[in-house]
Design goal:
Order of helices and strands: EHHHEEEEEEEEEHHH
Structural class: alpha+beta
Number of helices: 6
Helix content: 25-40%
Low-confidence stretches: none
Length: 215
Amino acid sequence: MSGDGQPEGKTYTVGRGDSITSIAKQHGYLWSTIWNHGNNAELKSKRANPNQLVEGDELFLPPKGSKGVSKPVDATHKFKIKGEPARLKLKLESLGEVRKNEDYTLAFGDIIVHGKTDDLGRIDEIIQGDVKVAKLMLNNATETYNIDVGGLDPISEITGVQHRLSNLGYECKGDRGEVGDATRKALLAFQRKEGLDESGEIDDATRARLDERHG
């Protein structure tokens, strides 16, 4: 409580795999309530996309108020908790070709969803806000991919570059936050495929093309 008897907010440190939706659901907020609070203005200007928080970022969680609703006594009432659904959006390609109209299975938590990619190879599914990992299965489950739902760092971060490279099939295993041998090999392969200068380094042109290919 503050000095005037009002509840106080608190600071939450973003952990690995956290997303704005998972944090909001865990603590009982709408994600927009957190993101649009004035105390988060500095972080909001730094991370233009709320879905690209970085481990170690600090979010202010505002105080919660209470709301009263008048209802007759001696009766049963149903209350619906409002929330904002999260969406998982993917675009599937293989060797530069769009994987259109392809059957897929998506598993997250205790939910399994079956669907088909659209003409542009896209998947768009509603998921629970606190989901951090989903499993994507293709070709009758002969291809299986673990998708880190809340773990995509901004492309300005080394980890953001590494995650995007890995999602596109250029593995950076063993490297996290540092440009090691695996990351240089992945960068060279990506740059060669995209007709870029094969430097093995994270330059502006590579970041721009990676953002174009992955988002």
